[in-house]
């Protein structure tokens, strides 16, 4: 098998010997590749240390840039914390998918009041919808996770998610809203 019959993401060719090897088996400081290559050395989650990425070049050795659009930016998180009422509204100016909402209280509430998760619809008040309403004191809840029903968590630009809780007992809370842009 040669480089011309495979994708460049898995093989490299040593310019000195012409030998082909899998790029993931290369170590050391004397690594060569046809065209241009870069060894990835970062702790960011995109690639692992030692992974290789290859650039395409034209016949004169100039890099050919290929831009690939992603349908996801990865998971984003909006957070809020405090010891008073929760009144958090997202401000996402793009289409997005709601993944989950996580709430932690430092102590179980004793006052009966509901945590509400609501859609503030871009289409207008007639389309605003309460997704979930739960009395956290009824089961002495300190940790609550809301996940949309599969296939129902996609929203248009201008839609916002509102999380509200009176928090009369002034429990310290940590709220995280996980989403991704689509």
Write the layout of secondary structure elements.
Blueprint: E1 11-13, E2 20-22, E3 36-39, E4 52-57, E5 63-64, E6 76-82, E7 86-89, E8 96-105, E9 114-120, E10 129-135, E11 143-146, E12 154-155, E13 160-165, E14 173-181
Antiparallel strand pairs: 1-2, 3-4, 4-5, 6-14, 7-13, 8-11, 8-12, 8-14, 9-10, 9-13
Number of domains: 2
CATH C-level of the largest domain: Mainly Beta
Order of helices and strands: EEEEEEEEEEEEEE
- What's the CATH topology name of the largest domain? Jelly Rolls
Model description:
The protein has 182 residues and is mainly β. The protein has two domains: 3-64, no CATH class; 76-181, Galactose-binding domain-like (Jelly Rolls, Sandwich). 0% of the residues lie in helices and 41% in strands. It is built from no helices and 14 strands. Strands 6, 8, 11, 12 and 14 form a five-stranded antiparallel sheet that branches. Strands 7-13-9-10 form a four-stranded antiparallel sheet, with no helix packed on it. A hairpin with an 8-residue loop joins strand 9 and strand 10 (129-135).
Question: In brief, what are we looking at here?
Answer:
The chain is an all-beta fold and 182 residues long. The chain has no helices and 14 strands.
């Amino acid at each position: 098998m040669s480089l011309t019959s495979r994708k460049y993401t898995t093989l490299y060719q040593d310019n000195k010997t012409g030998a082909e090897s899998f790029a993931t088996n290369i170590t050391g400081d004397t690594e060569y590749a046809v065209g241009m290559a870069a060894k990835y050395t970062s702790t960011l989650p995109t690639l692992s240390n030692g992974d290789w990425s290859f650039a395409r070049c034209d016949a004169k050795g100039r890099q050919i840039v290929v831009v690939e659009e992603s349908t996801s930016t990865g998971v984003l998180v909006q957070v809020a914390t405090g010891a008073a009422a929760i009144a958090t509204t997202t401000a996402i100016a793009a289409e997005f998918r709601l993944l989950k909402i996580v709430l932690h209280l430092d102590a179980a509430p004793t006052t009966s009041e509901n945590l509400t998760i609501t859609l503030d619809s871009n289409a207008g008040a007639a389309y605003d919808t309460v997704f979930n309403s739960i009395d956290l004191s009824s089961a002495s809840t300190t940790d609550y996770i809301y996940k949309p029903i599969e296939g129902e968590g996609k929203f248009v630009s201008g839609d916002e998610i509102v999380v509200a809780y009176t928090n009369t007992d002034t429990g310290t809370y940590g709220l995280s809203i996980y989403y991704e842009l689509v």
